[in-house]
Amino acid sequence: MLCSCVLWADLQFAGLDLSPADELLFTASAAAPPFGRYETLFLADLSSQTMRQLTVFPERITFLPHSGQLQYQNRFGVFRTNTALEAPQPVDGFPAFIHGRTSDSGKTMPIEASPDGRYLVYTDATGIAHGDLILYDTQNNSSRVIVEQIELSLSAPPVVWSPDSSLFVYRKAGGLYIFSVTREAEGRQLGEELRRIGPGGIASVRWSETGDLFYVRGSMVYRIAPPEFFVRAFYQDLARTGTIVGKIPFAFDPNFDSFWISPDSRSLLLNKGGNNLFLYLLSAEDFGTDLGVLQLPYVRLPRSSRVQRVLWSRANIITLLISSIESGRPTRSVFRMVPEGRLEFRLERLSAGEAVRDAVLAPDGSRAAVLLDRGVSIVDYRSWQPQRFIAHVDPLHAVWTGDETVVVAGRTITERIALRTGSARVIALSQVERYGFSDGEIVADAHQMSFRFDRDEHRFVATTPVTRRAASTASRRFRVFLETLRSGSYQNIIMVRDIVGVRTASLFLPPQRTYEPFPAEDEPVSFTVFNHGSRIRRRELAFAINAIDSVEGLSDILKTLADYSIRTTFFVNGDFMRRHPDAVREISLAGHEVGSLFFTYFDMTDARFDVNAEFIKRGLAQTEDQFFETTGSELSLIWHTPFYFVSPPILQASRELGYTFVGRDVDSLDWVPRRDDSGLSRLYLPTAQIIERVVGESRPGSIISMTVGVPLEGESFGGRDDYLFQHLDLLINRLMERGYSVVPVSELMDRAR
Hints:
Blueprint: E1 12-18, E2 23-32, E3 36-45, E4 50-53, E5 60-64, E6 69-74, E7 77-80, E8 89-90, E9 112-113, E10 119-125, E11 130-137, E12 142-151, E13 159-161, E14 167-172, E15 175-180, H1 181-186, E16 196-199, E17 205-207, E18 213-217, E19 220-224, H2 228-231, E20 243-247, E21 258-261, E22 267-272, E23 276-281, E24 298-300, E25 306-312, E26 318-326, E27 329-339, E28 345-349, E29 356-361, E30 367-372, E31 375-380, E32 386-391, E33 395-402, E34 405-410, E35 413-418, E36 423-429, E37 434-438, E38 441-446, E39 449-454, E40 459-463, E41 478-484, E42 492-498, E43 503-506, E44 529-530, E45 540-547, H3 554-563, E46 569-572, H4 574-579, H5 581-589, E47 593-596, H6 613-631, E48 638-639, H7 648-656, E49 660-662, E50 666-667, E51 675-676, E52 679-680, H8 687-697, E53 703-707, H9 728-737, E54 741-742, H10 745-752
Parallel strand pairs: 44-49, 45-46, 45-53, 45-54, 46-47, 48-49, 50-53
Antiparallel strand pairs: 1-2, 2-3, 3-4, 5-6, 6-7, 7-8, 9-10, 10-11, 11-12, 13-14, 14-15, 15-16, 17-18, 18-19, 19-20, 21-22, 22-23, 23-24, 25-26, 26-27, 27-28, 29-30, 30-31, 31-32, 33-34, 34-35, 35-36, 37-38, 38-39, 39-40, 41-42, 42-43, 51-52
Helix pairs in contact: 6-7, 8-9
C-alpha cells in the first residue's frame, strides 16, 4: 500500500520502563526502506550513563568465514557476534547509536567488510551526494580517509573486495581504481592515477574464486592477475592492464548491464539491459572455426524484471532468481540453465509454488536455502527437490555458515539451524513483542517464546514465561519522560530528571540537523500554471515524473517509490502509451497519480503545426480515452505540454475541459544527454551534481520534474554517463533529512487553495 504522505526520517522513542536499580528499558521505532517500520530495544544504566542495544534487526547480515562471525548492519550501527554466532555487539570503536551516533534516515549506506573481517569500507558523506571513502581497521580500531570526494550510492557497494582481502576496487568519477591494503600499511601505495584500471562502474568488475579480476570494457573481457596492477602500472598509457580472455557482441554499459563468472572462470553470463541474458564461453579466439557453431541459452525477460540473484555451482548449473512487477506488486520467479553436454544447456522454469523471496547456495554447492514467505526450504541443488523445511515467520535473509549449518534472520528472531539434526537455536532477537523487568532480570517475549537477557554473555536465553513487574517511569533517584521535538529527524527525546542532583537532561543528544524555517510569508500560488504549492503550510513537495519515450529505468523508479511507500505523480503521453502499454498499466496499478502529457510529444512552437484550441481539446480527449483503454482507469485532470510550453490559448482550451496546467519550480535536468547534435551539452550535469542542485533548490511546495528513460535513446549521441533514476533513493534520503514528505501534485494543489 502506497501512502501519499510519508516521512521516513522520524525516529520515535517509546515504552519507558525504569527499574528500582535505575536501569531504563525503552524502544526506538524506525522506518527502514524496504523493510518497513521496526522497533529496537535498548537498556540504559542511568547511574553509570552507559547504554546497551539488546535487539538487532537484520537489515543486512553476512557471514565472515575467516573469523567465523556474523555481521549485522542496520541504522543503529554495525554489529558482530562471537564465534558461536551469538551475542551481536557493536564493532569496537565503530560509530554506533549507543555511542552517540545519529540514527540513519531512509536507506542505510552500504558498508563492505573484507572477507577476513579485519576491515570495513564505507563512505562518509561530506556533502549531499559526495563523500570520503573510509577504511576502518577493526584490529586497532582506527580509520582513515583513503579516497576523497567520491559519488555516494545507496544501491551499489562502495568497493568490491578480492577473496584474500588484500585488494579492493572502487569507482570514482566514472573510473575504476585498485587499492592495496597491504601496500597502504607498508607506505608503498601508488598514486591514484597509477592505480587506475579504466573506465566503468562497480558492475564492470568481478573477482574470480582464484583471486583474478575480470573486467569488461566495451566488448572486451579482461582477466587481471593481482601482480599486474602494480607491475604494469607505469606502462598503462602504452598497454592496458590484463589479458583479453573473451569478447561479447555488445558494448557493455555499467549503468544497465552486469555479468557473472563461472566458478571455473571459463564462462560468462551477461545481463544486457537488465532483462536480456546471454551465456558465453570465454575465448579470445573468435575469427577461426575451432570452436564451431555454439548454441547457448538466451533468456529475454519482461522489461519490468531484474535479476536479483545468480547461483552458479561448480557443476555448471545456473539458477536465476528474477524479480518483477505484476499488477503493481513485486513477484519473483526462478529459472535454471542446466548443462546437457559440453556446449549445450537446457533452460527450464521451476514451478512457482510458494513465492520465493531469495535463494542462497551452500559453500559446497550441493544444496540451496530458498526463502519463502513462511520459512526456508533446503533443496538439493542439482534436482531442486526439497530436503527439509524450516518454519520461520517472515524470514528476510539466509546465510550458510558451513555446509551443514544455515542461519535464518527474520523480522522477529535470528536462528541457527543444524541440518544434520534439524535442531534450531535462537541466536538473536530482531524485535520483541513485550518486555520488562522480573526480579531484577530483563525479560522479553518474541516469536511466541519467552527470553531472559544474560548480562554476562550479552544475549537472550530462552526461558519459561515469567510475570513482569508493572512498567514504571520513576525510581528513588530518577524520573524519565518523553519530550516532543518540533524540528529534526527525531519525533521525541527521552528526558531524565535527576531528583538528587536537581537537574534534567536528555538521555542522549538529539541530531544536530534541524530543518530550515518556513518563510514568514507565503508566495502567491497560481492555479493557471501551478508551478508550486504553499511555501508555509507543510514541508511537502511533489515529483512530476515524465514518461515520454524510453521506458528504461521505470522499474527502478517504481521499486524505489515502493520501498519508501511513496505515492507521487507521473505524466504520460499517447506515444508512450502506444509503445509501452504494460508499463503504463504498472504505473497505474502501483497507485500513482497519472496526468496527461498530451496525445503526442512534439515542439508546439513549430510553425508547421496549427496549435489552436480545438487541437488541444482533441489531443487531451484522445489521451484520456487511450489511458482508459490501456488501464481501465481515468487520467487525473492535470497536464502539461511537451517541453512545458505555455500560451494563453493553450491554457484556456485546457481549462474548458477542467484541466489544471502543472509546471515546476525545480527542473532536475536529468533529460539532458551527455552530447547533442552540436557536441557537448552545455546543460549536462552528472547525477551527483543533479542531486545536489535539486536538494539545494527545493523548498516547501516544490514540484521537481524528472524523466523516465534514456535521453535521445537510439541516437549515436544519446544517453548519459549516469542516471538520476538509479540514485532516486539517495535524492529521497536527502529530502527526508530536510524534513520533506513526497506527495502527489494534486495534494499540493488542494493544500494551497
